[in-house]
Amino acid sequence: MSLIVQKYGGTSVGNPERIKNVARRIIATQEEGHRVVAVVSAMSGVTDSLIKLARECSPAPEEREMDVLLATGEQTTIALTAMAINAMGKKAVSLTGAQAGIVTDGVHTKAKIADLTPKQLKQYLDDGYICIVAGFQGQTKDHRITTLGRGGSDLTAIAIAAAVKADLCQIFTDVDGVYTCDPRVVPTAKKLDEISFDEMLEMASSGSKVMQSRSVEFAKKFGVVFEVRSSFNQNPGTIVKEETKSMEAVVVRGVSIEKNQAKVTVCRAPDRPGTAAQVFSAIAAAGISIDMIVQNVSHEGTTDISFTLSKDELAKVEAALAPVVKSVGAVGLESRSGIAKLSVIGVGMKSHSGVAAKMFEALSKAGINIQMISTSEIKTAVIVDEAKIAEGANVVHEAFGLGK
Amino acid sequence: MSLIVQKYGGTSVGNPERIKNVARRIIATQEEGHRVVAVVSAMSGVTDSLIKLARECSPAPEEREMDVLLATGEQTTIALTAMAINAMGKKAVSLTGAQAGIVTDGVHTKAKIADLTPKQLKQYLDDGYICIVAGFQGQTKDHRITTLGRGGSDLTAIAIAAAVKADLCQIFTDVDGVYTCDPRVVPTAKKLDEISFDEMLEMASSGSKVMQSRSVEFAKKFGVVFEVRSSFNQNPGTIVKEETKSMEAVVVRGVSIEKNQAKVTVCRAPDRPGTAAQVFSAIAAAGISIDMIVQNVSHEGTTDISFTLSKDELAKVEAALAPVVKSVGAVGLESRSGIAKLSVIGVGMKSHSGVAAKMFEALSKAGINIQMISTSEIKTAVIVDEAKIAEGANVVHEAFGLGK
After folding, report:
1. CB contact under 8 A, A75 and B75
2. Which of A207, B77, B267, B342 is deepest in the core (most CB within 10 A)?
3. pLDDT band at residue B334, thresholds of 50, 70 and 90?
4. What pLDDT, on the 0 to 100 scale, is given for residue A364?
C-alpha cells in the first residue's frame, strides 16, 4: 500500500464547508488504497486576526510569543479536519508539529527543521489512522514552540514525506499547477505536466510564486517528488522531480515575470578591488535583498555597478548607499523604478545554444528595449520597461512555442 | 522572596485592553517583591466560538479532537499576556499546560491531574521571569492534549501552587469574594474575610458558584491556601484555608441558595431492602445527578422516597423511573418543580446546637413552609417554594446576624 502526504493551504480549509470538502478528498485518497498524511495550514484570515490581536497587546510582540500565538491557527485546523473525517466514518487523528516529531532550531518565526522523528505518526499510520498534521510549526529540543515562516506548511509536508518515505507528496493549492507563464498575462499559457526541481526553483525565484524556494530546495535535497495541484477541482497538477533525459529535450520550460522591480546603478566607481564589496556589504548590513547584479568591463579606470531589487526597498537602499558612493569615490547613484524582469527557464538550455538569441530577437521585433541581462545555466533573464512586460512575455512565450 | 500563583478567568482577559490590565496587576505583584506565576483562561467567548466551529465540522466531535481544539483558547491568551508584560518592560514567558508539566489521565474533556513536574517553570522563575501558564489543559504521558473540564483553570492554579509550594494562590474573578449570601438576593450580605475549605465546599455544592468543588477539594487535600478576589478592583478578597479555632466561634458562615430545583417522590414504595437501590441505580444509569435524598419512617409497610435535582433533568428522570416504579411495586411517582434550596453553612455548627431551630423559626415567622430537610455536620438545608426563596434567604440571613 502506498503512502501519500498531502498539503492543504489556508484557502482550501478557509471555513467548515471547505474543511469538509478537504475531508472528502482525503477519504477519497484513502479509498483508492493509499495511506494518507495530510498537512494543513491555518484557516485563511486566522493568522491575520492573531497578528492584529498581538499588535493590540504589544507594539513589538516578542518572536517567542508570536510563535506560541500563531501555532494555535494550525492547531485549530487539525482538530476540525480530524473531526470532519471522523464524522464521515473514517479514523483520523490530529497531530501538532511537536507531536509529529518536527524538531527545529531556536530561530523563532523562521525556524529551520533540524530533525524529524515521526514515531507517533508512524504508529498511528500502522494502526490504520489518517494523520492530520499541523503545518508551519515545530518545537525546539527544549520544548519551545516555533514556526517555520513563509511557505512553512509546504515545507512541513515535504519534510514529512521525506521522513516517512512517502511515495508521493501532493501540494494542494488554489492554482491548477505550474504554468508555462502566468495565464493572467499570457492567455495561451498551459499547465506543465512535469518540471525539474531546478526549473521550479528558478521559476520561484523569478516571480512565479506557486511555492517558496526553500520547500523546493528541501525536496530536491531529499529527492521528494511532489505534485502541485488544485484543491478545488480534480485535474491532475504538475509533478516536480529530478530532471530526466526527456526533460532536457525541451529547451525552454516556461517564462517567468516579476514586476515592481527597481534598478540602481553606482555610476563610474573606481575599478579596483574592494569597491563592489563595500557596496554590497552596506546593502546586506541594511537587511535589503537584491536580485540581479551586473557589472561590465571598465572604461578609463571606472565602471558602473548595477543591481535590481523590489521597488519597495528603493528608498532604503538609496539611504544605505549614499555614504558608500562617497567613500568609494564613485560619481553618483542613479536609480529607476518602473521596470520588470522577464526570464526564460529550462534545463534543456544547458545543452542548447541560441536561447538567448531567440529571446532577444523576439523582444527586438516587438520593439522592446533590453536594459539589463543576466544568465544562469538554466535561465536567461532580462530587464525591460514594466509597461512592456506583458507584451514581452507573450512574444517570448510564442517564440519558444510554449502556447496551446 | 515569596511566590504567588494568580489565576485570571475569561472575563478578566476578555479583550486586549483587559489583558493589558491583567499584565499591570501581575507586574504590580512582582514589584511588591513577589515571584509570580499567572494562570489564564481563554478569552471570554473564544471557547464558545470554537465549539460552534466544531459543530459545523461534525455533529458529534470526538473528545480527543475537542481537547486539541479548545486548548488553543488558553494558548492564545498566554502568548498575548506574555507579550503585554514584555511590552511593559518586564520579563515574561508563556507556558502551555504540557510545558508547565501538567500530566493528566487520558479522560478527554474532563481529565484529572495525575502528576505535576514544573521543571521548566521553576527554571524560568529562577531566571527572574514571570510565568504565564495556560489553564484548563494538560497532556497525557503519551503526549495527547487533554482539558480538565469545568473550573479547570482554577484547578490548574491550585495544582501549580501546590507543586511549587507557593505562599499564596489568588483566584481573580468577576466577584469581590465569597459573600454571606448572594448580594443580588440579600442586599445586606457582606463579603467574608475568610472561610474554611469545608464551608467553601458546602457553599459551592449549595449553589454559590464562585468555584467548582473539585478545585476546593484539591486545595484542601494539598493544604493550598487561596484567595478569591476581583480582577476589576483592588479590594482584598476572601481567604480560603483550613479551619481555625477562631472560625468555629462563628456558628453560621453564610446562607446559600439554589433555584431551579425539582422534587421527585416515589410514593408508597414497599419498605424492604433493595427498593432504594433499584431507584437510585436507575437514576445513575441514566447519568442524572441528584442532590438531596430524604426517606422517612414507614407506615403500613410502605414509605415515600424523595429526592431533589435540577429541574432541567426532570423529564429525563421521570422517563428513567417509570419502569422502576412498577417493578418495585410503588403506588406512583409525584414530581414538582418551582422549588428552591436554602442552606445555612458553618463549621461552628458542629459544636453548637440550635441552628436548625433558629432557621426553622425564622422561616415559620415569615410564613414560609418547609417541604424537605437535610443536614450535614456543617450544613442545614431546606426546600421551600421558589417564589419564597428571596424572602427566606433574607430572614434567615437576618436571624443569624450575618448582615452589615
Report:
1. yes
2. B77
3. very high
4. 93
User: Which of 354-373 (A) contact B at CB < 8 A?
Assistant: none
Vertex B29, ends B25 and B32: CA angle to 5°?
A: 140
Report chain A residues whose CB lies below 8 A from the CB of B68.
Answer: 75, 78-79, 82, 94, 96
**Residue A207 pLDDT exceeds 80:** no
Architecture of domain A255-399: 2-Layer Sandwich (3.30)
> Residue range A217-231: average pLDDT?
95
For residue B143, count other CB atoms closer than 10 A to its CB: 12
A57/B83 touch (CB, cutoff 8 Å), yes or no: yes
CATH 3.30.2130.10 positions along chain B are 255-399
How confident is residue A402, by pLDDT bands cut at 50, 70 and 90?
Answer: very high
Ranges in chain B annotated CATH 3.40.1160.10: 3-174
Alpha carbons B390 and B386: distance in angstroms, whole number: 8
Q: How far is A234 from chain B (nearest CA, A)?
A: 22
Distance from CA of B358 to the nearest CA of A (A): 54
Using only C-alpha atoms, chain A has a radius of gyration, in whole angstroms, of 24
From A239, A153, A249, select the one nearest A196 (Cα to Cα): A239
User: How close is the nearest chain A Cα to the Cα of B163, in Å?
Assistant: 20
CATH architecture of B3-174: 3-Layer(aba) Sandwich (3.40)
Give the torsion sign (CA, A329, A331, A337, A343): negative
Contact B201/B194 with Cβ under 8 angstroms? no
| Residue B356 Cα distances to B344, B359, B394, angstroms | 9, 5, 16
In this predicted structure, the answer to whether residue B353 has a pLDDT above a threshold of 80 is no
Contact of B86 with chain A, judged by CB distance below 8 Å, is answered with yes
Q: List chain B residues with CB under 8 Å of A26.
A: none
Share of chain A above pLDDT 70, in %: 99
Tens-place pLDDT, residues B259-284: 999 999 999 998 888 888 999 999 99
Tell me how close the Cα of B363 comes to any Cα of chain A, in angstroms.
53
Interface test with B, best of A17, A69, A119, A131 (most B CBs within 10 A): A69
Sign of CA dihedral B391, B396, B401, B403: negative
